[in-house]
Specification:
The protein is built from 5 helices and 18 strands. By secondary structure, it is α+β, with helices and mostly antiparallel strands.
Length: 295
């Protein structure tokens, strides 16, 4: 299940996301993908519906952080959020494949979202100029009320009975009498690089944010070291002579005859110490001399 669910690659991208994002999400789902295949029966081509074993089964997905909405930013635990939502954009063909059999799909137009104005108590069609060919798919989860409702472009895609929209992701548990029962659970796992406080804030501190001050020091010292390296390779020169010597004399391969026999050319060195610059650069573990040794 782990190999078929793409868990390894999803976890890798989740770790990479945590390096520069305030939070990372992984979604767990059990998919049953049905496809139509061709079969030749008595010389005729017929279509049959089969379960795609490659795309079906336990799946783990990396979820972009801007797609997940939460109820309370000061609640650390994901499962203790009163409600969460996921907002994403899908193609019209994908929306039709998922919700085409619902009676409300006839109201769906690509790029057109239905919004409700509270003051006038009126619904409006709003054209999304940023996503003119896509549909907005929003899923509302409420673990306390055991609700999971889908909206496409603001149109309701649940059951006629609101209480019949049970959460699909569940786990085995027991009721107060000890009888087995399936309880709802949010299908998302969150993690991050480093906690911000004493477990009272939902988000984390990213590696980019935590190492920012050290990075500014490294950038500054790196520039100074490179400047010092250039001065070591091509040092400025001091010329003592009655003859004017142009800068073109110092190009590689140039041949110049000096008429003044007392001409002296001295490199101007200010005692640059490149090793000191390298040692000032911090390593990720906080130690110095990151270039000369590994952590």
């Amino acid at each position: 299940n782990i190999d078929r669910g793409n868990y390894k690659l999803s976890y890798l991208f989740g770790i990479i996301s945590a390096l520069f994002n305030p939070v990372s999400y992984l979604e767990v789902e059990f998919a049953e993908v049905i496809k139509k295949v061709k079969e030749k029966v008595k010389g005729k081509i017929v279509f049959r519906e089969v379960i795609d074993e490659i795309l079906s089964g336990l799946k783990v997905h990396t979820v972009p952080i801007d797609e997940v909405l939460i109820d309370n930013a000061y609640e650390y635990e994901m499962q203790e959020q009163r409600w969460i939502g996921r907002r994403r954009f899908i193609s019209h063909s994908d929306a039709k494949a998922r919700f085409g059999e619902h009676e409300n799909f006839k109201f769906i137009q690509p790029g057109v979202r239905i919004v409700f104005d509270i003051e006038s108590q009126t619904f409006y069609d709003v054209f999304d100029e940023l996503n003119p060919t896509l549909n907005e798919w929003f899923t509302y989860y409420n673990r306390g009320d055991d609700l999971q409702i889908d909206f496409v472009n603001g149109v309701y895609f649940g059951n006629d009975n609101l209480e019949d929209n049970l959460m699909k992701h569940r786990r085995a548990s027991q009721d107060v009498e000890g009888k087995p029962i399936q309880v709802p659970i949010y299908p998302y796992v969150k993690f991050g690089y480093s906690p911000i406080d004493e477990k009272s804030f939902f988000f984390y501190k990213s590696a980019v944010n935590e190492l920012g001050p050290q990075q500014r020091l490294v950038d500054r010292m790196w520039g100074m070291v490179m400047d010092g390296t250039f001065l070591e390779v091509l040092p400025p020169l001091g010329v003592v002579s009655n003859q004017v010597i142009k800068s073109s004399v110092y190009y590689p391969g140039a041949i110049t005859t000096f008429q003044d026999k007392d001409t002296t050319i001295t490199p101007l060195r200010t005692g640059s110490n490149l090793t000191a610059g390298f040692n000032a650069m911090p390593c990720r573990c906080g130690r110095k001399a990151a270039i000369f040794r590994r952590c």
